[in-house]
Amino acid sequence: MAEQQTYLIAGLGNPGPIYARTRHNVGFMCLERLAARHNLRFDTRRLKAEIARGTIDGHSVMLAKPQTYMNDSGISIAEILHWYKIPQPNLLVIYDELDLPAGLLRLRERGSGGGHNGVKSIIAHLGQDFNRLRVGIGRPSTSGPTRDYVLNNFTRQEAPIIAEAIDLAAEAAEVWLRDGIIVAMNRYNGGISDNPPVKSDKPPNKPDKPAKQELPPSYWEHWIWSSVVLMVPISFIIAELLMYTLLAICLHDAWKRGFGWVAFIVAGSAFGVLLEYADILTNKGYTYGNFMVMVGPVPICIGIGWGVIMYSVRLFTDSLGLPIWTRPFLDALLAVNIDLSMDVVAYRLGMWKWDWSGTGRSPLNSDWFGIPWANFYGWMMVVLTFSSLVRWLEGIGQRRSWGNRWQIAAPFVTLILAEPLLLLGITWPSWAANALSGIIKPSNTWWLITWTLGLICLIVAAYGLRHRQPVAHPPLPTWIVPLFAHTYFPLWLFLGGFWLQDGWLVVAAATNALLCLAIHLGGVRLSRRALA
Fold first, then answer.
1. I want to staple 313 with a disulfide (CB 3.0 to 4.6 A). Which of 238, 277, 331, 365 is the partner?
2. Per 3-state DSSP, what percentage of the chain is helix, strand, and coil (rounded to 5)?
3. Ramachandran region, residue 403 (left: φ > 0; alpha: ψ -120 to 50; beta: rest)
4. Which residue, among 107, 132, 103, has the nearest Cα to 194 in the 3D structure?
5. Which member of 24, 38, 116, 486 is catalytic?
6. Rounded mean pLDDT of 505-518?
7. Helices (H), 72-126
8. Among residues 530, 390, 409, 515, which one has the least CA distance to residue 474?
9. The pLDDT of residue 211 is above 80
10. What is the model's pTM?
11. Which of 168, 166, 184, 175 is nearest to 57 (CA)?
């Protein structure tokens, strides 16, 4: 008895929640709809792809979503065909097509890439002879980079049309499996109105189709029960709960030190929420994803993150006994070390999204793996401003013997005064970037400004370390907070498959973690030597 042949249906798209609903990911959406119709799950990750295996109408089928980014889709598909010994005629590739009006389908047995980089990559590895199903997304009605158009989400008007086309594409794939490419071409090479649902003689063995008014849920959205019950991805929930745990640890430590330290954490967290809220409303350069507890567009846990990070780095620099005026500069460096590892992963998980549309630049490769340099400049300025101001106000209270009440009030006075000061500190580089736009690219201007500030912080911190007088061992929060940042988020580099997108992400995360570990171990060594 001959061995049953396996069929491969590959959908093209870009990995990660950032791209989950974009026009360029129609191929992924069609595979997700097809998998849902036959109770298949993308529970295997190998050969640079997410894979679902099962049977459809009696045929052994593999559904594959390459995780190599669109331009290298052919690498993964070629490896799957070779590894599983699948004949090339048993391959169907589903992808988006700019040259077809939204909702139209076209099946072909062979052809050129037609300007689609994913198809060009497949042709480079397999040649032109493979079955393909194109789903029309239409061309933009206004002039602008095509890249921005395909990497943006469907409009409300397009969504029901595309949802119906995705249903029909899933049916077309079933017909291709059952009856071959010619029958599928004759039946589906037209508009939605020309493609009536195919009635099979076989009894139904699949659940009712989802409502056509909505795009199919992505794998990330139904990966675990949390997204169904709370509509929040599991990665968000764990991060949020861990952030509340860090807050409890820091508050317990602060309680033992005095109410002034508790006030520092509370004011720092409130400062974070207020500044994020103001920045989103005025700048609108980024937005946050859907967390469990939010104040308007800002997740509470983000503000808490500001508070606990500033608290932990302050404890560390205080324990080293640096000159008081140099401590905020080391605070800023330690905080940005944490941010460099957290933001790139949180960004890819969809916890926050930066709007790169209209820039003509890659959303995941520009600046620091898709994070604008201005973001890190702003973070250093936040820590410098808040840390410097609160220490200055506390110093005034100590010199004038204002007592504990002023130590409690100082962080909240800082909260009020820091907002306008920080606004000024962040606004002038924007003016400079605009003024120099005719001479230097804005991205290069922000790179120069950010690295200049970082270098200043490094020089001042180095001076402070040369004149240190350690007074205590670095306490527990100085270890726990960076441990969370340098383990939880890099873990998602692998769980989310982001390491397949860019291997330098792993190198950067490991380097940041080792640098943080070296600094903290050095702090312990210095304190032991001084306190022995």
1. 331
2. 60, 10, 30
3. left
4. 103
5. 24
6. 91
7. 73-83, 117-126
8. 530
9. no
10. 0.62
11. 175
